[in-house]
Amino acid sequence: MTKKRKAWLLTGLLFLLAIAAGIAFYFWNQTKEEELPRGTLVKAVAWEEESHE
After folding, report:
1. How confident is the model at residue 1 (pLDDT cuts 50, 70, 90)?
2. Rounded to whole angstroms, how far apart are CA atoms 6 and 3?
């Protein structure tokens, strides 16, 4: 196997790994959000901004 081909293979594997990690992270966040009432974080951020004014 040539060096160029090896480099492309490594790049491809890293790319697929990054996509897999992104999907896993997305689903992990989705399940985590279900534990909290929807919009809790948004309300907390809005309240923080109001208190700074």
Report:
1. confident
2. 5
- Considering just the CA atoms, what is the radius of gyration of the chain in Å? 20
| Whole-number Å distance between alpha carbons of 37 and 9 | 44
- Indicate the domain borders of the chain: 3-52
Rounded CA separation 9/12 (Å):
5
The amino acid sitting at 50 is E
The rounded percent of the chain whose pLDDT value lies above 90 is: 40
Cα–Cα distance between 50 and 53 in angstroms, integer? 6
